[in-house]
Amino acid sequence: MAPQIPDKMLAAHVVEFKKPYKIHEVLTPGKDLNEYGMLVKIAVASLCHTDGVASEGIMGTKLPCVASHEGAGTVVKVGTAIKEFKVGDRYCANVGGYLGVTIDGSFAEYEVVDGKECCMLPDNLSFQSAALLACAGITVWGGLVRADLKSGESVALVGGGGGLGHLGVQFAKALGLKVIAIDARNEGLSFANECGADFVIDARRGKEKIVEEVKKATDGKLADATLNVSDHESAAATSAAVTKMHGVLVLVAQPTNVSVLF
């Protein structure tokens, strides 16, 4: 039996730059899906840093626009060319480049997505866990792929208790790596520890002490690779300092100012 799709829904819009979202009742999209379109009933939508940038007006977003590109939910309608999905499937979308920026996004009860850019969710993965994987998740995963480490090698994550970092800690553990999480917030340190980091280091102790602790964790050689996922001005320098000679440093974050003194 086909799902009942209401004529109207609630959605959170950016209606004015640098102002809070406004929740409106609007027409439910998807009446005229293109051949690769899918209408999805959103279960969970996550807030990303990009949403803040878009709501500032920096990305050329045309208003009004429904925010968020980190959504997960259930397919309720598919275009004629869609073969990989059917009504009732659970999905998340990898469309962070434009969803919620140039077209309406996931802060709504329903959204239209491109079926070519979606992932099927396994039954054992909750919507809450899945929503951010196609943006935050693949961002930090890409950093680990570039680091090209083998099981048993060490990776340091500067900002390891943050939005990207806590995912990186879990991914790195799943790859069999020795994980060193560095963070400057009590909640970040606690979170990284909960996520399974082998070593947790307080960045507030200063760069020299951080380097000393990383040496202890790596038998004196420093990290085989480091991912900087913090936009703090000192994070890039810290990342370089804890990486071994001829190691790999991946700058995932984009701080406004970077200063690395060798």
Briefly characterize the structure.
This protein is an alpha/beta fold and 262 residues long. It has two domains: 8-131, Quinone Oxidoreductase, Chain A, domain 1; 135-251, Rossmann fold, CATH 3.40.50.720. 24% of the residues lie in helices and 29% in strands.
Could you explain how this protein is built, in words?
By secondary structure, the protein is α/β, with parallel strands linked by helices. The chain has 2 domains: 8-131, Quinone Oxidoreductase, Chain A, domain 1, CATH 3.90.180; 135-251, NAD(P)-binding Rossmann-like Domain (Rossmann fold, 3-Layer(aba) Sandwich). It is 24% helix and 29% strand. It is built from 7 helices and 13 strands. A 5-stranded antiparallel sheet has the order 7-3-5-6-8. It has a 5-stranded parallel sheet with strand order 11-10-9-12-13, with helices on both faces. Strand 12, helix 7 and strand 13 (243-251) form a beta-alpha-beta unit. Helix 3 packs across helix 4 (165-174). The chain is elongated, with a radius of gyration of 21 Å. The chain starts with 7 loop residues before the first strand and ends in an 11-residue tail after the last strand. The relative contact order is 0.12. The mean pLDDT is 94.
